[in-house]
Amino acid sequence: MATELHHLSDYDAQSVPDASNMCFGIVVAEWNPEITGALLDGAVKTLEKHGAIPENIHIKTVPGSFELVYGAQMMTKNDGFDAVIILGSVIRGETPHFDYICQGVTYGIARLNASQNIPVIYGLLTTDDLQQAKDRSGGKLGNKGDECAIDAIKMAKF
Ligand code: DLZ
């Protein structure tokens, strides 16, 4: 998975459906707030750029990335949403905690996508260090939040 080959904020605008009638839920983790705040900023701006109205973008926070699965599950139970985005940043530390959280969130979101009718877009940055997270949240490799917004619009249309 070489993000170096793919700028996260680059996309073909012509291929993005109009989002003016769509409603989105976003669940954001509070850990590493500098990163998750930048992801959220990118996601909201990109949704709005493609027509989503601010009243139709509903944002909830959870303490950490592990809680993103619960937050997303609650949102998928709300029929009003066309797509849900989760945003989090897990940075590797000295213990295996990183692996357990990343696996738990990844499995949990995959399970939601296979069992619920509303698409859940996976905006979890899993990086070795803070700089890699900065690079992917509005830095030199773009913003994962932008990418998630585009994917949410496309999956809502799907
Ligand atoms: C405990 C923990 C650690 C060590 N690191 C992160 C992290 O880098 N990013 C993140 O979003 N959350 C972290 N957490 C918190 C867990 O996701 C979770 O909130 C707690 O284990 C409580 O369930």
Would you kindly provide a written description of the structure presented here, covering whatever features stand out?
With 158 residues, the protein is of the alpha/beta class. It has one domain: 3-Layer(aba) Sandwich (Rossmann fold). It is 41% helix and 22% strand. The chain has five helices and six strands, in the order E-H-E-H-E-H-E-H-E-E-H. It has helices spanning 33-49, 68-76, 97-115, 130-135, 144-157, and strands at residues 24-29, 57-62, 83-91, 120-127, 137-139, 142-143. It has a four-stranded parallel sheet with strand order 2-1-3-4, sandwiched between helices. Strands 5-6 form a two-stranded antiparallel ribbon. Strand 5 and strand 6 form a beta hairpin. The longest helix has 19 residues, at 97-115. The chain is globular, with a radius of gyration of 15 Å. The two termini are 25 Å apart. 41% of the residues are buried. The mean pLDDT is 95. Bound molecules: ligand DLZ. Residues 29, 31-32, 63-67, 88-91, 93, 97, 101 line the site of ligand DLZ. 5-amino-6-(D-ribitylamino)uracil binds at residues 31, 65-67, 89-91, 122. Its EC number is 2.5.1.78.
